[in-house]
Amino acid sequence: MSGCLVAIHLLRSSRTSIAIKLIEKKDVVGRGVAYGTPHSCHRLNVPAVKMSAFPDNPDHFLRWVENREETGLDIIPGGVEPLSFVPRPVFGDYIQEQLEVARQAAPHVQLTCIRDEVVDLESASQGTLLRLRSGVQLRADKVVLALGNFPPSDPKPAEGSFSESPLYYGFAWAPDTLAHLEPEAPVLLIGAGLTMVDQAIALRERGHRGTIHALSRRGLLPSRHEFNGTPELFTLDDLPYTTLGAWRVIRERVARANERGNDWRTVIDGLRPLTQQFWKNLPLGEKRRFLRHVRPYWDIHRHRIAPEIHRMMADMAAEGVFQIHKGQLLRCDEVGDHLDVTFRQRYSTETKTLRVRRVINCTGPECDYRKFQQPLIVNLLKGGFIRPDSLALGLDVAPNGALVDAEGEISASLFTLGPPQKGIWWETTAVPEIRQQAKTLSQVLLHSLTGMLVNR
Ligand SMILES: Cc1cc2nc3c(=O)[nH]c(=O)nc-3n(C[C@H](O)[C@H](O)[C@H](O)COP(=O)(O)OP(=O)(O)OC[C@H]3O[C@@H](n4cnc5c(N)ncnc54)[C@H](O)[C@@H]3O)c2cc1C
């Protein structure tokens, strides 16, 4: 999706005849993991009014959806409103259409979509040489790595291992994750965040009747969106640059908001415009403290789900179909066509064993690039083109999106945006941030390409 957004902004802004090659290893561009889901029960977790591809035209997505409805398409029951949560596949349609619209409006720009995987790259006398899995080689003046999120690492029980079992599905977004599953089969989802919710809802949509267990250390589930009250106003001066200090300020603000009849969400939403700058200024040790102590609580308050999805989860819990467990994974044993998964219950020495037919890893993306097996990443690290940021939440990146190499040099030809910038900006994975990064990056690219054309 980020790669498409950069292409769209380049198409819209370029006044000269550049060539853009959009290389995607999957069948379709613009969807990625998030918007490539076939399940319409998978809703956006950001309201329609905030999902425009264009930072300077914030209603664009909303108006596009409304136009679709006017042609007779039923997008959600009751019709789409500014604060509606639209099915994610619809957003994928939107991005694909915007790419086509931008392409047609810029006949002087050559856009080619290539279905292939980039497996390696090397510096060339002019620009960068990319090697594709098919054997094709391409040269580019500028390269944007818009690679998104990577699959999670396998959970590691103290005894036994999931990875060898055919009953274990390590990547929740693989197309076969829910395939050939008997409707009565008990299932265990490891993790309790947004991926877990998506899997539970998809199971419900396909009429699953067996118990859906979810296991996480704390058993914290994402909160639901609600819109009452305008976001609190913060300035950077309101927040001390320590994790504990900032957390105290947030709690005080929440208490005051509650006294005024406002919701805690107004405080969390009020922080959003400052989060990137605050994170950038926070000392490294304090960032580590935040990740250790605050992150799980931050995540469930910041990354919320649509009210209708929250209601579905609550209904499933009330019916006993969905059960959440908190504890530490101890062992897994394959017993015939089942997996017995044992965990120690939180705040207890008691253990509990769940007998399930399938275990799905919903622990969220792995961020440490040193753990990835994808050929491109392995080769980029080996070649010293990239290095992890100091928290290994993503890659080391300069403020203009240029990648920082193993020696600390800022690249003149390799750039990135979105999830790989998490360590630098923290708040960088959702469309409201990515669209701005895509626009800014397209300007950086066009500016430096103009310089190159003049100098050649
Ligand atoms: C399940 C989920 C739901 C989300 N919901 C929302 C939401 O409701 N609202 C919101 O604002 N944000 C949401 N997000 C966050 C955000 O939109 C995503 O993080 C965003 O899609 C990131 O875009 P991306 O282009 O970086 O990654 P992706 O969209 O995943 O695209 C990366 C693409 O790169 C391809 N690729 C990777 N490596 C190679 C290679 N070597 N060669 C060729 N192709 C390659 C992949 O196949 C993939 O298609 C969601 C994220 C997820 C995971």
Briefly note the structural class of the backbone: alpha/beta
Question: What is the end-to-end distance?
Answer: 33 Å
Question: Average pLDDT across residues?
Answer: 95
Main sheet attributes: strand count, strand direction, barrel closure:
7 strands, mixed
Biggest sheet: strands side by side, in what order?
A: 7-13-8-9-10-11-12
Count the DSSP helices: 12
The ligands found in this model are: flavin-adenine dinucleotide
Written as H for each helix and E for each strand, in order along the chain, the element string is: HEHHHEEEEEEEHEHHHHEEEEHEEHH
Task: Bin the helical content.
Answer: 25-40%
- What is the alpha-carbon Rg in Å? 23 Å
Counting structural domains, the number is 3
CATH class of the largest domain: Alpha Beta
CATH architecture classification name of the largest domain: 3-Layer(bba) Sandwich
Strand count = 15
The low-pLDDT segments are none
CATH superfamily of the largest domain: FAD/NAD(P)-binding domain
Provide the β-strand percentage band. Answer: 15-25%
In CATH terms, what is the fold-level topology of the largest domain?
FAD/NAD(P)-binding domain
Q: Which descriptor suits the 3D outline?
A: globular
